[in-house]
Amino acid sequence: MLKGSGKSNGKTGTKILLDAISKDKVHLARFVLDALDGEIVDSKTEGAQTPLISSVLLPDAQARCKFAELLLHRGASVNCRDGNGRTALSHACEQGHLDAVKILVRNSADPEIVDSWGNTALMYAAVAGHAHPQPAVALPQTWIPQHCRNN
Questions:
Q1: Which residues fall within 8 angstroms of residue 112, CB to CB, at 6 or more apart?
Q2: What is the crossing angle of helices 61-73 and 26-35, to 10°?
Q3: pTM of the model
Q4: What are phi and psi of 114, to 5 degrees?
C-alpha cells in the first residue's frame, strides 16, 4: 500500500477523513487511516476540532456511532480537546447524543474535564436541557453527585 509522508499529506488526509465522516463513507475513512498509519486520528482542523469530535456531532445516530467506534478503535484519544478545551464528550452531551456519550464513557472519557470557560460535559448537557432522568439513568453513577443518587 502506498504511504504518504510529510505535513501536506497529513493535512490532505485529514480533509479527506473529515469529508468521509461527513458523507458517511466508512470504507474511505478506513482507507485513509490505514494509508497514513493512523497518524491523523487525532489531527485537528483549522478550528481545532478532531475527527472524533466531528463524528459525535453527526446528525445520523448510526453514522455517529460507526465513526466514533472506528476512530476510537484506531487509537483516537477519547479526551483530546478542541481549541476551546472541549472534548468529544462535552459536545455529545450538549447535543443530547446519548448513544455517543455511552460509547465515549465505555472508552474512558473523563466527565470531569473542564473547558476554557470552566464547564464540564454534564454542565453542557444540563444547560442544553439534556440532563433529564432517562439519560441520567444510563450515565455512570459516578457522574451523579452522591447526594443526588437514587440509592
A1: 120
A2: 20
A3: 0.80
A4: -105, 135
- Distance, CA of 57 to CA of 69 (rounded, Å): 14
Residue 124 belongs to a domain: yes
Which is more confidently placed, 7 or 146? 146
Q: What is the mean pLDDT of residues 110-128?
A: 93
Domain with residue 50: its CATH number is: 1.25.40.20
Which residue type, as a one-letter code, is found at position 43? Answer: S
**131 within domain boundaries:** yes
In a domain, 2, yes or no: no
Give me the residue label for grid cell 480537546: 81
| Total of domains in the chain | 1
Q: Which of 142, 141, 144 is nearest to 126 (CA)?
A: 144
Kindly tell me if the per-residue pLDDT of 6 is higher than 60.
no
